[in-house]
Design goal:
single chain, alpha/beta, 3 domains, about 45% helix, elongated
């Protein structure tokens, strides 16, 4: 065993974390808050936000079989000094629906086999609280519904309280929705659908229920079968329950600095992680008060590299999340977008935000509605609450990690329309970053823009031109492209901030002001617009933070002027 607490990257078993003394960010103070709310609740958070390890912690806390091990398991954590009366008083059934395997043709059989295994294990673990042969009797019930009923009746007779924990309650049905479409999904979750029937059992059988997932779609479709659960997703009391606050991350960094495993500065690490992993807010009530939250799995991925290799990872985005992104793309149906939802994506990608309201839940039949689509993006972590906007919310792209997902989608869309050779663009980025030769970079982007829009008018007006530029500028590994950055009381279109921690050989950085003219604009209008851009970009360059972000590079102030679909002028101020 290591002399220091290792980073639990990829570990979701709470008892393993404690038994093997891995580093753990204490979330046990939320146990009391959860107890004080309704007994039946569900919460939605984006993928890789610590849901599974939190539910594993809850299971360890309430399991009557672990009651005598409470101090051993929770020693040093907040709850060890503040135990609740319900600690160690439940028989706990845990269902992780991401483990339901099998083809769509054997859907119910696969679900039944999964439930049978879990229920047989439950009966075996708690047999000593019933009678000799209880586990065998449960096992003898061939149908999982009969097993549920057997356990329920025997527990009720003995007044045993039961606690149900469901991880990824929506994973099973969302996969059905993705693969088979709405008709099969509807049959599963409506009428006498077997999945809906299971939720009817939950309502009567369990004293307390906690469910977590990544989308509220399933719960809305099951409301008539299970209509007593409170959605606490946007409740301000639980905003920080999952994920890491900046204080959590700083404490972790200091621990490893004290252990001699991190030698670089705390501020340096925070400055590198913050643009990529931070800025999530799940409750409008505290958007101006509570700290924003980091994606905890991404933080662990990053710090694992720093601790074990002495360097930050070569890729700021964990490659293991690619599967998550593919699932997300399918579930929000990016390959089946109509014009309205496509417009939503373009607006978000170009502006970095959208003004809208959030729906707490919605049926699958409403997924094609543009307003529902915005809410779905929020639940999947593709948007977060930025600020209040009258009676609505300003929903923003939280960080570079998510921003790249938007731009990667746009790039895929452009590539479907026109096969464009990006090798010349790669060379142009080399020249811009290393030699200060920026003309090829802008010329190649302008060429791609003109060719793409000549095939299909995807880009109409300045707003969507911004999205196109964002998508292409993120293809360079040398820069962190920051669109609409506030500089000196204005918002520059693009700041190409050099990623010097990975590429210390970068010698040049850029502020780029993008100007769009309608196809029938006159030369006089073009000249006036250019002069306006010159004044704006000089103002941006005077911002105090620019000098800090550009490091030891030479800063270039560039203007790019597009009329219709063609480059009119590109120059340096």
């Amino acid at each position: 065993m290591s002399s220091y607490r290792q980073i639990p990257y990829g570990i979701s078993d709470f008892r393993q974390l404690r038994r093997e003394d891995w580093y753990y960010v204490d979330k046990t103070m939320y146990i009391q808050r959860l107890e004080e709310s309704t007994p039946f609740k569900f919460l939605v958070r984006p993928r890789r936000f610590g849901k599974s390890v939190f539910l594993s912690m809850m299971q360890a806390y309430y399991d009557i079989n672990l009651r005598d091990q409470f101090q051993e398991i929770f020693k040093g954590l907040w709850i060890a000094d503040h135990p609740t009366p319900l600690q160690g008083t439940f028989q706990v059934l845990t269902l992780d629906f991401s483990l339901v395997l099998g083809s769509i043709d054997t859907l119910e059989q696969s679900f039944g086999r999964f439930c049978n295994v879990v229920l047989d294990d439950f009966a075996k673990r708690y047999e000593h609280l019933y009678y000799d042969g209880f586990a065998a009797d449960v096992k003898a019930e061939g149908f999982y519904g009969d097993k549920f009923n057997k356990i329920y009746l025997e527990a009720k007779e003995r007044q045993h309280p039961l606690y149900l924990i469901v991880d990824e309650y929506d994973n099973f049905t969302n996969n059905v929705l993705n693969v088979e479409g709405e008709a099969v999904y509807h049959a599963l979750t409506h009428g006498e659908g077997f999945y809906r029937g299971v939720f009817k059992l939950f309502k009567a059988m369990f004293n307390r229920v906690l469910m977590m997932g990544v989308s509220p779609v399933t719960m809305d479709d099951l409301t008539s079968g299970y209509n007593v659960a409170l959605n606490i997703t946007q409740n301000s009391l639980f905003n920080q329950m999952l994920g890491f606050s900046e204080d959590d991350v700083r404490q972790m960094i200091r621990y490893y600095q004290d252990e001699g495993k991190i030698t670089c500065g705390e501020e340096e690490l925070i400055a590198e992680m913050k643009p990529w992993y931070d800025n999530y807010c799940f409750s409008a009530e505290i958007v101006d008060s509570d700290p924003k939250m980091f994606n905890c799995d991404m933080v662990l991925y990053y710090l694992h590299s720093v601790v074990t290799t002495g360097k930050s990872p070569k890729q700021m985005i964990d490659p293991n999340t690619r599967t998550d992104y593919r699932k997300m793309q399918k579930l929000i149906r990016l390959d089946q977008l109509d014009g309205n939802r496509l417009g939503v994506l373009h607006e978000i990608a170009s502006k970095g935000y959208i003004i809208n309201t959030l729906k707490e839940s919605f049926p699958a039949s409403e997924l094609t509605d543009p307003d529902t689509f915005v809410s779905l993006l929020f639940y999947y972590g593709m948007l977060t609450i930025g600020e209040l906007y009258g009676a609505k919310l300003k929903l923003i792209i939280p960080n570079n990690n998510v921003r790249l997902q938007y731009y990667n989608y746009l790039m895929e869309e452009y590539r479907r329309i026109l096969r464009y050779d990006h090798s010349h663009l790669d060379q142009a980025y080399d020249q811009a970053a290393l030699n200060g030769d920026w003309q090829p970079m802008l010329q190649e982007i302008a060429k791609a823009y003109e060719q793409t829009t000549s095939v299909r008018q995807l880009i109409e007006g300045e707003r969507n031109l911004q999205g196109f530029m964002n998508a292409y500028l993120t293809l360079t590994p040398y820069y962190l492209t920051a669109p609409e950055m506030e500089l000196n009381h204005g918002f520059c279109d693009f700041f190409l901030m050099p990623d010097l921690s990975r590429y210390p050989m970068i010698r040049h950085s850029y502020i780029l002001e993008l100007k769009y003219l309608k196809a029938d604009a006159t030369n006089a209008e073009a000249d006036a617009q250019w002069k306006e851009a010159e004044a704006q970009i000089r103002q941006y360059a005077q911002a105090p933070m620019v000098q800090k972000m550009m490091g030891n590079t030479t800063l270039h102030l560039l203007i790019m002027q597009i009329r219709g679909y063609q480059l009119v002028r590109a120059g340096k101020v």
